[in-house]
Automatic annotation (TrEMBL):
Residue span(s) of domain Acylamino-acid-releasing enzyme N-terminal: 22-445
Identification of the protein by name: Prolyl endopeptidase
Signal peptide feature range: none
Protease among keywords: yes
Species of origin: Lymnaea stagnalis
First-tier enzyme category under EC: hydrolase
Cellular localisation: Cytoplasm
Primary role: This enzyme catalyzes the hydrolysis of the N-terminal peptide bond of an N-acetylated peptide to generate an N-acetylated amino acid and a peptide with a free N-terminus. It preferentially cleaves off Ac-Ala, Ac-Met and Ac-Ser. Also, involved in the degradation of oxidized and glycated proteins.
């Protein structure tokens, strides 16, 4: 690997290298009772630049858990056309949801049931016409669960839509104008005349196929599907699980009315956790009013249910509470509360985008999960009886393991007390590790097993985590003690001893975070000879709820100054070339990029940004999450609020656009033309304003790409063009 790629060919090959490392996404473990052998199956995601797609790879390890030796390995082999693949509780059966097309090119979904020797049956599930497409593991709605008796499968699917047709269609039946986009119960196969162009509201960015998910149960014996009808019709269902003895179902719902607000990256949406009793047909509310819920998980003995909640409304990602329900009494108890402020390295609270399916240890007391802990992704074990929290990580004194003390960990699941995790650092791609943890209350002497050879450390990159205390004038008077961090990645020093140019990288959200996990973008920038400063400005996740709240009402000032000050501190250390500074970031990171080049016009050589927020006033009525503007501006959100003469001036003043006349920095704009979150018009508005002011601007547009511009070819094009743009503006 070259340490400095400058020519287009070298840049492309550097990008190929950094995208060749797969990322683990999920794991399943099979352990036969009383046996020392475990079969660990992991799914990984890897870029295939030539096929222009992300491939899902299955790897399988057979491990003797007593000795730690790997007895056999299979894969990686590619998995295609599978929405779900789940082994039954006894381990005897496997259910797969497979997608395909029929001869007329119509979408098909099949549920296939296997035993250990053969496929037992295939059910052409859409042909039953009970519901629309089955929902995959989208991290928001989807779940796919065997009943404990193994006779039924529980899943989420889109509610069946009425067929619509033209007024001029002779087959049409029912007149339009009902405003009812759901299927009438009677005469379900008839076509609704005049409704074919009716607007269909969706759950927004990256969830544009989600309209009204419903809970479905397949009886495997009789091949019949029931769509459960007890959930209120203005609520979309998701994350469903079987309750004790398969007598009912626990399910989360999100309210549609008065209209849907985007759900992606937004855990604060009005939602509820219910128990649906299948015998009585009753629906009991389990969660607390005014709290938004996620991720219900029953203990192995089904006596306890845990879930996460945050306040309804407000910033789109916040510090969560861990709540436990004692199933017999339905008594609800907060196990881990929101943490307002955590000095130094104390536990900062729970922040998680996703919870593994299997979190409980066999003692029915402890659970494990990944969470952001300042600039590190950590795995924690929580005692749900007393709320005690312990970090689960490799003892860095273990020289055989040789793991960086700043490594980030991810939790994949626990089964029969065997925990499955992975670790990585900014200069070491992902490695698996597992361990038998028979006493989760004592994590002091765990023997870790590494099923693979340790991934090489990438010697062209070193990194360190820096702590920043806001200077006196920047202290937030309401949240005085909140500090923040940044991660500095340095490329291999050049022979000539010249200092590297610096890319200042700010994350989006603003409520998200950079951690020390392997990061393709930073690795790529370093390979190309740039230092990268990833700034976790106040408002980032993993630093306590006070940090998140400190930014509300202060976007465009506090976050901008945090990034600028971190940059100044790093330049003062003499590790980077302060005369060659570049700015990069997308979404809210693009808001910061465009703010910084406006507020500090003489600082940056060039900038590059993906789908930046540039004008809150014009974005208000076009984004899928207009409440975001209110939350970040510390205003009360009401669905009826309009962008009126009182609101608009305020939004304008917080926006990068208000600094447009000062901008001199050449900027590359990268736009996902299907972005529902920060609509393309934001970038085009900025583009035109710069053109009119004779500022150098280049604009790249990516059809069929959303807010994240994550199609493999589009993302690759963005990355290579960013470096080419920066290289062209190096003095
Ligand atoms: C009205 S969009 C605000 C910005 C956006 N926030 C939430 O979705 C954002 O910054 N997104 C991040 C996660 C990103 O795309 O990187």
């Amino acid at each position: 690997m070259a340490s400095k790629a400058t020519l287009a060919g070298e840049i492309v090959s550097a990008y190929r290298d950094v995208t060749s490392y797969p990322t683990p996404t999920s794991a399943d473990i099979n352990i036969s009772e009383g046996q020392a052998t475990v079969v660990l199956q992991t799914l990984w995601s890897q870029h295939d630049l030539d096929r222009k797609e992300k491939t899902t790879l299955l790897r399988s390890h057979t491990i003797n858990i007593a000795t730690g030796s790997t007895l056999g390995k299979l894969g990686p082999q590619e998995v295609k056309n599978e929405l779900w693949n789940k082994v039954s509780p006894s381990g005897k059966l496997r259910a797969v949801v497979r997608t395909g097309k029929d001869k007329q090119n119509e979408d098909k979904h099949y549920i296939e049931i296997f035993d250990s020797t053969r496929k037992l049956k295939t059910i052409d599930i859409l042909a039953l016409e009970k519901h629309g497409k089955i929902i995959d593991n989208d991290g928001q709605f989807g779940s796919f669960e065997w009943s404990s008796s193994e006779g039924h499968l529980l899943y989420l699917a889109e509610k069946k839509k009425a067929k619509t047709g033209s007024y001029f269609d002779p087959k049409a039946y029912k007149d339009s104008g009902s405003g009812d986009d759901d299927l009438p119960n009677e005469k379900p196969d008839l076509v609704r005349r005049g409704d074919e162009f009716e607007h269909i509201e969706t759950w927004g960015e990256q969830l544009t196929e989600r309209v009204h998910p419903v809970v479905c149960v397949l009886d495997i014996e009789s091949n019949t599907v029931s769509v459960l009808e007890n959930i209120p019709d203005d609520e979309s269902a998701g994350q469903a699980m079987w309750g004790p003895d398969d007598a009912g179902i626990v399910v989360c719902t999100w309210k549609h009315s008065p209209y849907r607000l985007g759900l992606k990256f937004c855990c604060q949406r009005k939602s509820a956790l219910y128990y649906l009793d299948l015998q009585k047909g009753s629906l009991d509310l389990l969660s607390q009013d005014g709290r938004a819920v996620r991720f219900p998980r029953f203990s192995p003995d089904m006596s306890k249910l845990i879930y996460l909640d945050v306040p309804e409304g407000g910033p789109h990602n916040q510090c969560a509470r861990l709540v436990k329900i004692d199933w017999a009494t339905r008594n609800r108890q907060v196990v881990v509360d929101e943490v307002k402020h955590a000095p130094d390295l104390e536990f900062p609270g729970i922040y998680t985008y996703n919870l593994a399916r299997q979190v409980w240890f066999d003692d029915n007391i402890h659970i494990a999960m990944s969470t952001s802990w300042r600039s590190i992704s950590a795995v924690i074990v929580v005692n749900t009886d007393n709320g005690k929290i312990t970090r689960l990580e490799v003892d860095t004194a273990d020289t055989q393991a040789n793991i960086n003390p700043q490594a980030s960990y991810g939790f994949l699941g626990v089964k029969r007390n065997v925990v499955m995790m992975y670790y990585s650092t900014l200069n070491q791609p992902y490695n698996l590790l597992l361990a038998q943890v028979n006493d989760p209350s004592n994590l002091s002497s765990i023997s870790w097993i590494y099923p693979d050879d340790h991934m090489e450390t990438l010697d062209w990159l070193t990194f360190s985590v820096l702590v920043h205390k806001p200077s006196k004038s920047r202290i937030n008077p309401k949240y005085e003690n909140v500090d923040y961090e940044s991660i500095l990645c340095l490329p291999k020093q050049s022979q000539s001893g010249t200092l590297p140019p610096l890319i200042v990288f700010s994350h989006g959200g603003p409520n998200s975070v950079f951690d020390t996990s392997f990061n393709i973008i930073s690795a790529f920038f370093c390979t190309c000879g740039y230092a990268v400063l990833m700034v976790n400005y106040r408002g980032s996740l993993g630093f306590g709820q006070d940090s998140i709240l400190s930014l509300t009402g202060n976007i465009g000032t506090q976050d901008v100054m945090d990034v600028e000050s971190a940059m100044v501190e790093v330049i003062a250390k003499g590790l980077v070339d302060g005369s060659r500074i570049f700015k990069f970031g997308g979404s809210h990171g693009g808001f910061l990029t465009t703010h910084l080049i406006g507020q500090y016009p003489d600082t940056f050589r060039a900038a590059a940004t993906r789908n930046p927020v540039v004008n809150l006033a014009s974005m208000f009525s076009t984004t899928d999450i207009n409440d975001w503007i209110f939350a970040q501006a510390a205003l009360e959100f009401d669905y009826r609020t309009l962008a009126d003469d009182k609101l608009l001036p305020y939004l304008w003043l917080c926006s990068p656009m208000s600094h447009i006349d000062k901008v001199k920095t050449p900027i590359l704009l990268m736009i996902g033309l299907d972005d529902k979150r920060v609509p393309p018009a934001q970038s085009f508005e900025y583009y035109k304003a710069l053109k009119a002011r004779n500022v150098s601007v280049r604009c790249l547009t990516y059809p069929k790409n959303n807010h994240s511009i994550s199609d493999v070819d589009a993302e690759a094009d963005c990355m290579v063009n960013t470096i080419v743009w920066f290289n062209n503006h190096l003095p």
